Amino acid sequence: MVKTFFSFLFTLIVLISIYLSIFELLLYSFHSPFGVAIKNPIIHEQTWTYLLHQQYISLIEIDNYTIYEKRHLLDVKKLLEQTYNLWLFFIILSSIILIKFFHQIIQNLIFIGIIFNLLLIVLSLNFIKIFDLLHSLLFTNNSWVFSSDSLLIESFPLLYFQHFFALFLIITFLIFFLVQKILLKYSTVFQG
């Protein structure tokens, strides 16, 4: 019972590490929805530079944003920095776990990962409601609610988040598929 619990816990830690790694990868590489022209590409790029590359936390200095949009971007920046630190922690912890318990973890990883992905797909069937729920939990006082003509909404439309999430799911399924293929090919090596 205790061994099963720890095996599940360690698998979950590695899975979180994979999810956070994919999130970080997409965060740095995917900045606009497919097939949508950015209305203000300079402001859009400056916003991403602020969110991802500036080392200090301050209100964004792009005058086109309202004070409310700037405050929300500051909250997003803080959240992204916390996520990055969490990712580093989980990467280190996962590395230690995989070094010590690779054989026990790797086979559970695919099964649990696919179950989590299927759960994410089911939740995404009502994407807008989940999106709103997550935002209301992460950003208090409705500081994330803006009118549809807001520059922030134009730069980061709902479609961006939907595409981001779809890419996230595709990449995770590909990783689980590849790990499964490797396990099947080298099954005698991974037993044990």
From TrEMBL:
InterPro entries: Lit. This is Integral membrane protein. Keywords: Membrane, Transmembrane, Transmembrane helix. Coiled coil: none annotated. The chain crosses the membrane at residues 7-30, 84-102, 109-128, 160-179. It comes from the Bacteria.
